[in-house]
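Milestone M4 deliverable, item 7.
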Amino acid sequence: MKIKEITDFLEEIAPLHYQEAYDNSGLIIGNKEDVVHGALITLDCTEEVVEEAISKKCNLIIAHHPIIFGSINKINGNNYIERVIIKAIKNNISIYAIHTNLDNVIHGVNGKIAEKLGLVNCQILKPKSKLIKKLVVYCPKSHVPSLKDSLFENGAGEFKKYDNCSFSVLGNGTFRPKKGSNPYLGKENEVESVQEERLEFFYNVESEKILLDCLFKNHPYEQVAYQIYLLDNLSTEIGSGIIGELEEEVETGNFLKDVKDKMNTDCIRFTKKVKKTIKKVAVCGGSGSFLLEQAKTKKADIFISSDFKYHEFFNAENAIIIADIGHFESEQYTKELIFDLLREKFTKFAVQLSNVNTNPINYL
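Output delivered:
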């Protein structure tokens, strides 16, 4: 099996265009055409993890956090990032990262946290927009059926649980072919009027190149008249954080103890217990302070995340409880999530969980 078979599957679940602008998800080291013998799943890619991959004969490491975020000017082994890169390349080990794109799908990192905490009726806390575009094209009526079919086959008109979605309206188009043109209809320097349909299709942004290639290939006109619109529609299944509910209200102190146990953390930093009981819970794996206002707006009793700075705790404003459980702790079950996805899809492929604890923080 080739690396691309694994990465293509992961990107069906969490497409790369779902990642944040600052992120670097995807195949970071290696060639997607290489044959993969075994995959090691980890939260972070460290030197110790690469050594573990070598010992377990895994030539693909799948990490949540990318080993490379910013630019690298030199690779001399002066820091752990450079040393990981050197060691991986020397041992023909590829490294793949599935980071904020996995954060941003409803059954991804935050969905796993919600599952661990027993939340129900889960929704995206901050839905994403600008992931859908609309293609408008004008086509002579005679070619509409074949053009629609070809566009549908290449991803146009897919919307949640529906496909072959389109809208059309009949009208008359006019044009005059200039000298040197080769029109499908009409004659040079003569105004032509033809019955056309205006066709409209929704599509996901990652499909654009394929759809345009298909459009130009299957449309009869020498110059295709088309328009593209970027839509602000919010997605109900793509975005940051999760908000859900407990089956029953739980006394706040007991809930915090439950969180500490289920999330296997040695420390929870939390604000004043302004809620006597907890029912509505917002969560975000990793650094989630940017979602606090959304959690307050949606009337969450508690917001569970990590990496809150001292002054950010004041922003709870006695309207919500902030519970900072630690970055590693909030994302630790991501390994389990990726492992289960791969084992279910590739039942005979060697997928292993890393035994290395990559948490750089210790508690006393």
